[in-house]
Amino acid sequence: MLIQRSIAFSIVASLLLAAVGCSESADAKACRTAKNADVDVGSRLAAVNELKDEPMLADVAIHAGEPSVSLAAVAKLTDQVLLADVVVGAKDRAVMEAAIKKMTYQPLLADIVKTAGDQFVRLAAVKQINDPKLLAGLAVDDLDEVIRLEAVGKMTDEVWLTIVAKVAEDTKVCEAAVRRMTDQTLLAYFVTDGKTSQIQEAAEKRVAELTAKKEKE
């Protein structure tokens, strides 16, 4: 991944500098200190505070082996690809979650949901997604029902909710989509033409809820 190439470049650059008699860069020294388990945590945190190179910060976040140091490194990261690499490469869930919470690039978040092996990480990534098309895709196609329901539970777009309610094979997902709809014209379709009786009942209940709410206003 990008972080591996960036880190490899930084290492090669440091070796070349050493070979020609140049001193180690401030960032390289700070990175080495931050990852050194034999150095006290306070000094390692101070090193992270001095570090500005983002690939090196990502390297620290993944390999520090001390959650407080890794979290400090994540807090300074802004590069979306490097944050995604931290999510994939870190071992500590708190570090993974911190990296995910800093991510805003929706396709990368969706990729994490699709490829990460840890359900905790996948759920955290879903919670950061707000793109209706990506959420609909996860609600319909993800293999994990927990992820499918989490995705549909974040949806608000009536068009995409309608699509999910029509095409999803998981009846629970269809019902969840119907329960989030507010357009009574669209709901009327599912009252009569929902593909299962459970979906029809869910649509009927949703219409009744919306009608009662409107009467109280």
Radius of gyration: 24 Å
- Sheet of most strands: none
- Mean pLDDT across every amino acid position: 90
Calculate the terminal CA-CA distance, rounded to whole Å: 55 Å
Given the structure, what is the number of helices? 15
Order of helices and strands: HHHHHHHHHHHHHHH
Low-confidence stretches: 1-7, 13-22
Question: How many independent structural domains?
Answer: 2
Helix content: over 70%
Categorize the overall geometry.
elongated
- Main structural class: mainly alpha
* Total E-strand runs: 0
- In terms of DSSP E residues, the strand content is under 5%
Structural features, described:
- This protein is mostly helical.
- The chain has two domains: 1-129, no CATH class; 131-217.
- It has helices at residues 2-19, 26-35, 41-50, 54-63, 67-76, 80-89, 93-101, 106-115, 119-128, 132-141, 145-152, 158-167, 171-179, 184-193, 197-216.
- Helix 9 (119-128) runs parallel beside helix 11.
- Mean pLDDT is 90; it is low at 1-7 and 13-22.
Based on the model shown, name its key terms.
217 residues; single chain; 2 domains
How would you sum up this structure in a few lines?
The chain is mostly helical and 217 residues long. It has helices spanning 2-19, 26-35, 41-50, 54-63, 67-76, 80-89, 93-101, 106-115, 119-128, 132-141, 145-152, 158-167, 171-179, 184-193, 197-216. The model is unreliable at 1-7 and 13-22 (pLDDT under 50).
